[in-house]
Write a structure and sequence with these properties.
The protein contains 15 helices and twelve strands. By secondary structure, it is an alpha/beta fold. The relative contact order is 0.13.
């Protein structure tokens, strides 16, 4: 299995273009330029970028700075030298942009979808809204802003907690998905009903589409509850098949990421309404170890009953997921088992762990038995 790595990388260097600041105006000067014939305040440079949507209208994706950017070097300074030296280091290097992290291509793909949505629905606020969430002190904000401008990202909302938990803020933002490198905070978010996953940097990364957002989901304990997985873990494969056959007309309960799939589906339908089903910039995948004939029908019936479409469904009957994900090349793949996350990483897929359900109990037992 590939080693999950957060090895330090070279931080991208180079000066960032200085922000343009308009000279101050007194009251008389303000009156003079407001009174000029043909003056339009909307022509000011500050309004050239689209406004972020209201949180209640948007699909809000909260991303930790540690997964959006590569911050391993800075993390080592914090761990080895403490918070004061860490802040000093950040200020001294605030004109050096961070390199892209594992969530970077995913965020760029969200912005690509937004651009297409704005073309079709100029006044709509049903868009992806990206919130940068960080435990950092506000002093680090300048470097983060410089980095965002350097990479031409459109991220206007920041949540800098200075070491405090961000979970309360995530709820206030109506967050649809939270991505972080901190597994404890991810578990805390899931406990509060917020879709969340832990992201990792792999040693190998596969190139992904720049024109289409691709999101892949495992089924049990991700889109669905862990009900069926509990049968498999406690009673074995034969009992699992028997249980699924007996309950094929009984809907599975929802899992932690059902709501995010719903949000993706809502935006997909906006493209379908404009006749762009075949040219939709969002594509979703179900990649499950279930067998199609013996246990797949229940999963498909559940999705249909929920009113959700999945663009592609792969029932692997226990075969490794990594090779299939290598062909799909998703921007992100969600799974509740680290075994599959590591397998995806081995093939260069950015995979995110959803620490939910009975599999977490077995993961912990395996770590204890191996001395990890």
């Amino acid at each position: 299995m590939v080693k999950m790595s957060l090895d330090t990388v070279q931080v991208m260097s180079g000066q960032v273009k200085e922000l343009k600041v308009s000279p101050p105006f007194n009251g008389d000067a303000r009156g003079s330029w407001e009174g000029k014939e043909g003056f339009d305040p909307n022509q000011l440079e500050l309004t050239t970028k689209p406004k972020p949507p209201k949180p209640e209208n948007a699909v809000t994706v909260a991303v930790s700075s540690r997964v959006l950017f590569r911050t391993e070097r800075e993390q080592k300074v914090f761990e080895q030298k403490g918070v004061e030296e860490y802040l000093r280091y950040q200020i001294e290097h605030e004109n050096e942009p961070f390199a892209p992290g594992p969530a970077f291509p995913f965020v760029k793909a969200l912005e690509t979808v937004n651009a297409r949505l704005r073309e079709l629905y100029p006044q709509s606020e049903e868009l992806f809204d990206i919130v940068l969430v960080t435990y950092n002190h506000a002093h680090v904000g300048i470097r983060l802003i410089n980095t965002i401008n350097h990479h031409n990202l459109f991220i206007e909302r920041f949540c800098m907690t200075g070491g405090s938990s961000p979970i309360g803020y995530l709820k206030a933002w109506h967050t649809n998905l939270y991505l972080s490198a901190d597994a404890e905070k991810v578990r805390e978010a899931l406990a509060e009903g917020i879709a969340a996953a832990t992201m990792f940097m792999t040693e190998k990364l596969t190139e992904v589409s720049e024109s289409q957002l691709r999101v892949a989901f495992d089924g049990d304990a991700v889109l669905f509850s862990d009900e069926s997985e509990r049968i498999f873990k406690t009673h074995g494969l034969d009992k699992f098949f028997e249980h699924e056959k007996e309950n094929e007309d009984t809907l599975l309960d929802h899992g932690p990421l059902k709501g995010f799939l719903e949000a993706l589906g809502k935006l997909q339908k906006k493209f379908y309404a404009k006749g762009q089903r075949l040219d939709c910039p969002i594509r979703t995948y179900l990649v499950t170890a279930r067998s199609a004939a013996s246990s797949g029908i229940r999963a498909l019936k559940t999705l249909r009953a929920w009113g959700l479409e999945i663009d592609e469904a792969l029932f692997l009957a226990g075969a490794p997921k990594g090779p299939m994900l290598e062909k799909i090349r998703p921007h992100i793949y969600f799974d509740d088992q680290m075994f599959h996350v590591e397998g995806a990483a081995e093939m260069g897929t950015v995979a995110a762990h959803v620490p939910y359900g009975i599999a977490q109990k077995y993961n912990s037992q395996q770590k204890m038995s191996s001395g990890k």
